[in-house]
Amino acid sequence: MRKGVIMRAKLKFAIGILTLGTIIASCSSTKNLKEGESLYVKGNVIIDSDTISKENKEKLATYLQSALMPKPNKRLAGVPFKLYFNNMAGDSANKNMIKRFFKKIGEEPVLLSDVNREYNENLLRNRMENIGFFNAEVKSDTLVEEKKATVNYTAKPNIIYKIQSVKFNVDSNSQLGRDIRSSSDKSLLQVGKHYSLDVVLNERDRIDNDLKNKGYYYFSPDYILVEVDSSHRNNRVDMYVTVKKETPPQAKVPSKINKIYIFPNYTETSSGYQRSTRNAELFDSSYYFIDRRNTFRKPVIAKHIFFHPGDTYNRTAHNQTISHLVNLNSWKFVKNNFVDSKEIPNALDVYYYLTPLPKKSLRVELLGKMASVYNGTEVNVNWTLRNAFKGAEQLSFNVFGGYETQTGGNADLNSSYYRYGMEATLTFPRILSPFGSINPSRRFIPKTYVKGRYEFLNRRKAYTLNSIALDYGYIWQESEEKQHDLALLEITYVQPKGISENYQRQMDTIPALRHAIDPQFTIGPNYNFTFQNTMKQHLKNTFYFKGNLDLSGNILGLIKGADFNKGKTFKLFDAYFSQYIKLSGDGRHYMKLSENSQLASRVSLGLSYSYGNSRSLPYLKQYYVGGPNSIRAFGARAIGPGTVAPEKLSNGLFYADQTGDIKLEMNTEYRSKLAGFVHWAAFIDAGNVWLQREDVNKPGAKFSKNFLNELAVGGGAGLRFDFTFLIIRTDFSIPFRIPYLPKGERWVFKDIDFGSSQWRKDNLMFNLAIGYPF
């Protein structure tokens, strides 16, 4: 970062601190309190137990403390900021616009007199009883200092009760009783486990869900009664699962599916959802369609209805149908009703009301990009046509353009450019195959896609590139955690033009620059596999993995007998086609350390083998490291390959476009919440890229057994502003290890000098980005 930018940032920070300090100094959280009033600042729970571990005491205290009422005034970094705004407004808020604003965003003081200690004591006892501490005791006292009050609650859990027996007292002569008993071996109520009200409630839900899948549409968890006998003196309970006597007869018998009505082009009226079936057309002897305009092809919708007339009602089929209809991305609202049939007893008629999304839509996106040495912007205009061929297909055209300009630094990033282009995508909600209908999973909708893309890139002082890409493939989800993306055919064609005289001279000096503008032609399949369980927030450890297998030119190379070692290389469309096998993996681990902190780690590995018609990967397929989402102490593409130093140019700048055939990157980051939406992180990044083969122009670039000694290492810290819908990230980082320095001098801790402006200019890297790096 340039010195001027740092100085301005320091000045703004100092002004902000001074302003905040002035406001706080001039305010007092208790200045408007009347005589005898105290501000309630905290409710504190202390666990009094010799049998509970320290860790479990903390968890229990946190659990109980969350129940205390009322909540103290909201705080940011320990400051009750909303209360300060209220105090600044005073009692004359109606006479002043600014004070009215402060009053509006402020918060009235929460007083000690608002706290009902007896109510909270009973609340805490009840919470402990809910988790098995039936003989819990709670006492409280109050501490007041300088009009600020803290209420301490001492909770003595005593001995927790465990389950001694579980009995299902249901009528085994009725179908309902037999169906409940049939799944009793899956009961969540386990002998020897601690009593818990949450487990009892979950057991009722489990029984209900099991019955729903056996046809009991009208059954409810509320019809299950779990009686608890805690009269034993051995701190044990007996549990009895029964069906309430007041359960209605309709809920005790399974329901069948009778008629199925589908409204594919439904518009809700003021009178609600209508059930008129006039003009209904029977399809496949199963489904009645009410769609006079034939807006959707009937077989497409019928394929995603998992009920048939005569079926027993099933919650899984119910949910799968709704999920499929929603994920067809053709309807704004998907609503269904189950209504008692007037023709058959214990039967249901099903109505599906599908309100279409607009046939056409236009979306415009404007993006801004900023880092320490470059700025730019990009615009995307996307036009979408839904239900293109009446089968829930989606056709989209995206026109894009943008520019980026270098604003500082000592690297020639070649980032002063402008680009524009267009992409067209046609998506089918099914697998299109010459072998007939293929559906890898009933739960999820597979998709077939056809993509075409053209892009023009003009690096104004260097060269221009025209690129064309064509893709045909499938995406399908195996489960909630696993997804597959198979591009059966992926073609990329890149042709350079307009090479400047200056860039031509640089190529003569630095042959590596020629690789960036080589004509490129890749053709072959591409497969991606993704696994993630990060959506399961209750887990302490979650994972994300994405693997990629990319093949190009292998069949062509065999047919042609290509061998670059023998000088037998071939062109297609005036470009040497690439022949390689490329394997990549990106694995991430997230460990929850507490409610507001976690440790996030990533390992990214890339391997490739070029042969036949290619000596190395084409430029667009090569790996690189560095930048705001990689090794943040170094610029993008400014590391490697191996121990190769960035190429110096005649004007004193260096050329930062270092790429390789092999990649290793490791990152770890501690993330924690500061206050409100403000979070912070400390991180360490390491990695490099290498070449598959020796290159006389890049000594030290080939991958070898000494690769660990050639890693670049950097670290730093930054703030994250989490607005839920948007995360803004700022990172400051410095290099710890520079791989292109001489052996024995690569660790640079001894050179760190924050007081030196020249050192900061050469080493301190600032990144402003959207979202987390991984």
TrEMBL record:
Sorted UniProt keywords: Cell outer membrane, Membrane, Signal, Transmembrane
A GO CC annotation given for this chain: outer membrane
Residues annotated as domain Bacterial surface antigen (D15): 377-738
PROSITE patterns (UniProt xref): PROKAR_LIPOPROTEIN (PS51257)
InterPro entries assigned to the protein according to its UniProt record, in alphabetical order: Bac_surfAg_D15, D15-like
Major site of localization recorded for this protein: membrane
Subcellular location: Membrane
Entries under Pfam families matching the protein: Omp85 (PF01103)
PANTHER family attached to this UniProt entry: SORTING AND ASSEMBLY MACHINERY SAMM50 PROTEIN FAMILY MEMBER, TRANSLOCATION AND ASSEMBLY MODULE SUBUNIT TAMA
Official protein name in the record: Outer membrane protein assembly factor BamA
Native source organism of the sequence: Sphingobacterium detergens
Lineage: Bacteria, Pseudomonadati, Bacteroidota, Sphingobacteriia, Sphingobacteriales
